[in-house]
Amino acid sequence: MDSKQALEFINGLLTKNRKQVLNELEEKLFLGIWADQTYSQIVAQTHHNDQYMRETGRNLCKKITEDLGIRVSKKNFKNPIKYRYQQYSVQVSPFQKPIAELTNPAEQDESQSPYLSQQNHNPFMPQNGRIENLQQFFGREREIQWVFEVLNSGSSVALIGEEGMGKSSLLWVIYQQANNHLQSARQPVFLDLNDGVHNEDEFYIALCDKLGIPESKGYKLTRNLRDKRVLLAIDNLGKFTWEGFTRQVRDQLRGLAEGRDASLRLILAASEPLNKLFNDSQDNGKTSPLAGICQEENIKPWDEINVRAFITSRLAKTSVNFTEEKIIQLIQESGGHPRKLMQLCYQTYSQHVESLQ
Question: What separation in angstroms does the CA of 206 have from each of 96, 182, 190, 225?
Fold first, then answer.
């Protein structure tokens, strides 16, 4: 089992378990550790410093251990993965291909693989929620480029758009690509306020846990972040309007994100412009703390060209084609709204398959 096979195997397991696959930096680390390279040797191949690489390496081992149950460390990396691979090789039935070969569906022939045909019978998935598999993400190249231009200029960003427009998926992709596109290295951290964060205290607990620092807020938090440089992606920002949250948490985030060399650089996802979302920002002539440091990008519906390209890309790996009449109907009924389009396409594809049975 060579390093590339091992990497494909791990990414395949992560995909199967609905976890994020390794990003580019993590893959370089994985291949370097597999080749028994020291951190100094791996650093020489990247633009990151030794301390950041060591921290990323620890997080990589932690991710494989916690997400996949394969207990690895820098010193004992290959043997646990090889052992798990052997277990899967034994478990896979004769007509199934090893999971390591399932990480790139574009290279597979579904007619030759019953496993793939059963698992990927409808390409219009998922219908709801954040897309975390980068292979399933579509479009938004202009928005991604703009976001990194703003972040690299020293400002923070807010993605604004109605529910189901794809803000969360876009936020996740930017978080995943941060190590490749930020000119100054920052630790990317993703925090979804819908993941059990119900008040301000829980927000600080979750934030410090993600950052790997002692639980703190106020000046103690500022002090604990003094030597850190973080890109903090916050999803479902509207939860800050709930009872249990105050303007104080937004004031602190602003303080931590002000200045080109600030501890935090923010990228936020919200359903309304920040000044409108936080009405208390207008009290006593005050302005919104977050609106004051974030450049806002409105996430709009896809145009007809993008809708057609999306449908074509999803159907490319199948033997199904939608008629021109049906595509026009999907464009009109969805209005270019990504979630609506996904749901309508899923129904259309299912109806087509059922008609053939």
Answer: 40, 24, 10, 15
